[in-house]
Structures are given as structure tokens and as C-alpha cells.
Amino acid sequence: MPNKKDTAKKSGSGPKLLSGGNPQIPKGEGDKPVQAYIAAMPGWKSSVGKRLDHLVVSTVPDVHKVVKWNQPFYGNEGDGWFFAFRCYTEYIQLQFSSGTSLDPVPPKESKHEGMRYLNLREDDELDEKQFVSWIKQAQKLPGRKD
What we know:
With 146 residues, this protein is of the alpha+beta class. It is built from four helices and six strands.
């Protein structure tokens, strides 16, 4: 059941939420569209999005950011994307493009070769030390070019 903030975003003048609760944000390169996506994340998800973005930027200060396919991507410019996340109704999905090469491997399998996920629900605590370790590892691996 959506909370009041989720409902307010759907009926307000802000970005439209797609089915599953993912904000519809126009494609764009750089920090501005990523921050627009994070601001449009419904309810508790926005503060988690801010934290994820902060941790990635703190770990990889020259990270290249873009919003495409209605989600933020992080990568090394010219070398593809190593991390992305998106909203679903009950969780935020953290996506590691070379996840099968990370140690330890993120828990959720993908149908996409090499990709692994971590789903964060409202009551979950982000293991920031593990997340930063994954980001450090991931940014050294070849990224996805799509």
C-alpha cells in the first residue's frame, strides 16, 4: 500500500511515477538529471538515493553520471557504466554491471550476463562499508556500454 508521500508524488505536479513507482525523468548527462531523479523518488527512497549518490561520488570523485531508461547510471567516462539503481514498488534495486566479478558477489542474480543486484527495502540497513567496497571494485572493471 503506498504511503502518503508516494500518493502525493503521483497526484502532484512533479515527475510522473511509472508503474512500480519509478520516476519518469528525461534523459540527461551530468549531476542535474541524477539529482532530479533522486528528488522524484517516492517516500523513503529519496533519502536512500541521496545516500547512494553521495557514497558513489565520495568513492569515485570524477564519476560520470547520466539518466537514461528512467534511472541514474554511474561510470567512468568512455568506459561504460559500473553501477545504476532504480525504484520498484517495495524496494530500490542496486545494479552492478560486473557484479559477478565482485567479492563478495551481490546476492541477486540477473538474466543479464555479469550483472548482479541488491534490493533495498524500507526497513533494510545499507551496509555502507560493503557498498563502498563494491563501488571501488566495480569502477576498476569494464563497464556496460549500453
